[in-house]
């Protein structure tokens, strides 16, 4: 069992080593300071790489989160809620939201389809300092309309 488990996480371990090395080289003291953003375009592909083990994916995300926190980098992850509808997937989504400083969700309208609005975007900024110096979460909602080459964003109720 141990060998199979090591094989399952091997791809993610190797990916993390490559990311870690690139971040270390880019943030070396002798180099000019650059800002690094690690982008994971589709989290479901990591789970495929780990042969379905969401635990290995969570371990990988925790390592990446720690690395980016220590080095002052950003970690951006794209996840598809429709892929993760199982109980295990919901755990993965909740863990990702817990690790995130900003959560962006694109969803269909709760009221159904509309011709002038294609969906809503919900943005949760964690740890925003308010005018009194207190930390709080800031939640914003926008509607969006997809056009041929762009997307228009606007406040609910305002003209698109």
Q: Would you write up a description of this structure?
A:
It comes from Kingdonia uniflora. Belongs to the ELP6 family. It holds the Pfam family ELP6. The protein has 160 residues and is an alpha+beta fold. The protein has 2 domains: 1-100, no CATH class; 101-160, no CATH class. Helix content is 39%, strand content 26%. It is built from 4 helices and 6 strands. A hairpin with a 4-residue loop joins strand 5 (135-146) and strand 6 (151-154). It is globular. The relative contact order is 0.10.
Give the topology string: H per helix, E per strand.
HEHHEHEEEE
Structural class: alpha+beta
Q: How far apart lie the N and C ends?
A: 56 Å
**Biggest sheet features:** 4 strands, antiparallel
**Helix tally?**
4
- Give the proportion of residues in helices: 25-40%
Query: What global shape is seen?
Result: globular
Total number of distinct structural domains? 2
Radius of gyration, whole Å? 19 Å
**Average pLDDT, to the nearest integer?**
82
User: If strands are numbered along the chain, what order do they take across the biggest sheet?
Assistant: 3-4-5-6
Low-confidence stretches: 1-5
Q: Tell me the fraction of residues in β-strands, as a range.
A: 25-35%
Q: Please give the number of β-strands.
A: 6
Regarding quaternary structure, what we see is: single chain
Brief overview:
The protein has 160 residues and is of the alpha+beta class.
State the main characteristics.
alpha+beta, two-stranded parallel sheet, globular, 4 helices, 39% helix, 160 residues, 6 strands
Please describe the topology of this protein.
Blueprint: H1 2-26, E1 37-40, H2 43-49, H3 54-71, E2 74-77, H4 87-99, E3 102-107, E4 119-129, E5 135-146, E6 151-154
Parallel strand pairs: 1-2
Antiparallel strand pairs: 3-4, 4-5, 5-6
Helix pairs in contact: 1-3, 3-4
